[in-house]
Amino acid sequence: MAAEMALLEPVSKFNTKIPQISNSRTPCSRFFTIRMSATTTPSQSARKKNAGKKEIQETLLTPRFYTTDFDEMEQLFNTEINKSLNMAEFEALLQEFKTDFNQTHFVRNKEFKEAADKLQGPLRQIFVEFLERSCTAEFSGFLLYKELGRRLKKTNPVVAEIFSLMSRDEARHAGFLNKGLSDFNLALDLGFLTKARKYTFFKPKFIFYATYLSEKIGYWRYITIYRHLKENPEYQCYPIFKYFENWCQDENRHGDFFSALMKAQPQFLNDWQAKLWSRFFCLSVYVTMYLNDCQRTAFYEGIGLDTKEFDMHVIIEVSVRPQIYSPSIKFYRL
Ligand SMILES: [Fe+2]
Ligand SMILES: [Fe+2]
C-alpha cells in the first residue's frame, strides 16, 4: 500500500528505546501508540526505558491497520465456487510480480544522511512526519497482504502467491522509509506497532475498494512528486524522492491486481448498493486525504507543491481519467 488509506495518520511519539522488530501478530488493544525510537546506545535506552510512551485515541483521521473476513475471502477465491475468476489473467499477473522489477532498486547512498543533516527547523520535523506516515501506510499493506497470502494458499495458490509477493514489495517500501528515519536518528518500532495497534475490520468488498484506491492514489502521489521534482530540482531536498519513479510502479501493479480481483467479483461492482458503496469509499478517502494534506501543507510547500492543486491532480487521475481508459472500474468516480 502506498497512500495513507482512509484514514491513516501516524503520530510522532518519541522515546529512547531501541527498536524491536518482531513477527506480526494480530493485535487487539483498544488504543495504540506509535513508538518512535531514537537510535541511541543500549545503556541510554535502558535508562529511559519507558520515556515518551503515550496512548492516543483513534479518530477518523487516525492511521489504521486492516483485517478482514478471511473465510469469506477463501470462498471468493475458490475456483470451484467462483466461475468469474479469470485464472489466466492472475497467472499473467503472477509472472509479472515474480519478475521483481525493483529487486535492486532500493539501495541507499551517502546522499541521504547528508541531505537529512541539512534539513533543519520546522521542515526537518515535517520530513520526519512524512517518513513516519508513509512507513506506517506501507507497513499496513505488508501486514494485510502477508496474511491474505497465508490464508489463501490452499484455496487459490496463484492469488495467494501474488498477495505474498505484494507483501514483499510493501515490506521493502516500509523498510526503505524506516531507513530514511535513521538519517534523522530515529526508527519506527514496527514490531511494537504490529502488536499494539488496533486493527479495523472491513468486509472483503470494502477491503477491495479501499486497497484499490489506496494503491492507485499512492501511484499518482509518488509519480506526481517525482515528476515535479525532476522539473524543479531546487526543491529536491531529500533523495528518497528520486526513487519514486520505479517505486510507484510497484503500487500501480498492486492497483491493477485489485482491479482484476474486483472484475472477478462482479457482485461487488454492478448492483446499486455496490455503486453507492464504492462512491462512498471514494469520497471518504479523498476527503481524508485532503484533510490530512491540508494539515501538513508545510511539507508540500517545502517541496514546491501547492497542496490543493496536488490533491486535485491525484483525484482527477485516479477517478476521472480511468473512466476513459479502463471501463472495468468505471464507477470509481465522483
Ligand atoms: Fe508500497
Ligand atoms: Fe502497494
From TrEMBL:
Transmembrane segments: none annotated. It is an enzyme of class 1 (oxidoreductase). It comes from the Eukaryota. CDD domains: ACSF. It holds the Pfam family Rubrerythrin. The keyword NADP applies. Pathway: Porphyrin-containing compound metabolism; chlorophyll biosynthesis. InterPro entries: AcsF (IPR008434), Ferritin-like_SF (IPR009078), Rr_diiron-bd_dom (IPR003251). The keyword Zinc-finger does not apply. Keywords: Chlorophyll biosynthesis, Iron, Metal-binding, NADP, Oxidoreductase, Photosynthesis. Residues 129-262 form the Rubrerythrin diiron-binding domain. It catalyses: Mg-protoporphyrin IX 13-monomethyl ester + 3 NADPH + 3 O2 + 2 H(+) = 3,8-divinyl protochlorophyllide a + 3 NADP(+) + 5 H2O. Its EC number is 1.14.13.81. GO terms for biological process: chlorophyll biosynthetic process; photosynthesis. Its cofactor is Fe cation. GO terms for molecular function: magnesium-protoporphyrin IX monomethyl ester (oxidative) cyclase activity; metal ion binding. GO terms for cellular component: chloroplast thylakoid membrane. Belongs to the AcsF family. PANTHER family: MAGNESIUM-PROTOPORPHYRIN IX MONOMETHYL ESTER [OXIDATIVE] CYCLASE, CHLOROPLASTIC. This is magnesium-protoporphyrin IX monomethyl ester (oxidative) cyclase. It comes from Olea europaea subsp. europaea. The lineage of its organism: Eukaryota, Viridiplantae, Streptophyta, Embryophyta, Tracheophyta.
